[in-house]
Amino acid sequence: ADAAVRRGDLAGRRVVVTSGGTREPLDPVRFLGNRSSGKQGRALAAAAAARGAQVTLVTSVPTELAGVDVVTIETALQLRDAVVAATADADAVVMAAAVADFRPADYAPTKIKKSHDTADDGSADESAPTITLVRNPDILAELVTSRGSATSPVIVGFAAETGDDTGSVLDHGRAKLERKGCDVLVVNEVGVDKTFGADDNTVTILRRGSDETVEVGPASKAAVADAVWDAVTDLL
Ligand code: CTP
Ligand code: CA
């Protein structure tokens, strides 16, 4: 659809978009994070607002965006709470956030020092600490499991993949779509020099139950966003 046709095609719809990488704190000054810039999610929110939707953007990247309710979060658990609250009466949810799969099991309320006294003889312990991780909830999978028949938003996932010995980027994408049970999966190939922080993106859009793929790009993240909303509006 071209821009003129699209304009207003999300009018009266409520959509939720997540973006950015979550930050999982170790202590007051340190966190485990990832390279997500939040730009694709921001473009998705802007595109939905331009097409008439009422938009909530749940993001780790503080931002202001005309016509968009921004909820700033830091951790995966906070993102889950914000998404669940915003999704109650939503028509679509797009999970573009790079949610940390794990978080540190313990949070140190004071800064972790590189050298600390041992309990017994008072001598300094110079050993490197071991960080124990625990799993974060899979928010996308939870959204799929918890959607009722009365309120059933279209659910879109993103998959950042690198190909490996066990399969190509697309193989991993298809397997992930089946595993997650979402309606649409937007697959992109990543690497330190690809996608992260860039203004352009190249993606393949997969639909559950369909062998058709839509390839977009290299294109602006705004153009990718419009292609994602095209896939969503087809399902609304
Ligand atoms: N996602 C989520 N909650 C998580 C992890 C991921 O909601 N704890 C969402 C992401 O926002 C994305 C989709 O799931 O929309 C796919 O994320 P991805 O990291 O590619 O998938 P995983 O299932 O975590 O698989 P893996 O990292 O092992 O490839
Ligand atoms: Ca993951």
| Rg over C-alpha atoms, rounded to the nearest angstrom | 20 Å
The count of strands amounts to 14
Unreliable residue runs: none
Largest sheet: 8 strands, mixed
Helix content: 25-40%
Oligomeric state:
single chain
What's the pLDDT, averaged over the residues? 92
Order of helical and strand elements: HEEEHEEHEEEEEHEHEEEH
SS content category? alpha/beta
Strand content: 25-35%
What is the number of helices? 6
N-end to C-end Cα span: 15 Å
What is the molecular shape? elongated
Spatial order of the strands in the main sheet?
5-4-1-6-11-12-13-14
Bound molecules: cytidine-5'-triphosphate, calcium ion
Describe the structure.
- With 236 residues, this protein is an alpha/beta fold.
- The chain is built from six helices and 14 strands.
- The strands form four sheets. The protein has an eight-stranded mixed sheet, with helices on both faces.
- Helix 2 crosses helix 6.
- The two termini are 15 Å apart.
- 37% of the residues are buried.
- The model has no long low-confidence stretch (mean pLDDT 92).
- The chain binds cytidine-5'-triphosphate and calcium ion (CA).
- Cytidine-5'-triphosphate binds next to helix 4 and strand 11.
- Pathway: Cofactor biosynthesis; coenzyme A biosynthesis; CoA from (R)-pantothenate: step 2/5; Cofactor biosynthesis; coenzyme A biosynthesis; CoA from (R)-pantothenate: step 3/5.
- This is Coenzyme A biosynthesis bifunctional protein CoaBC.
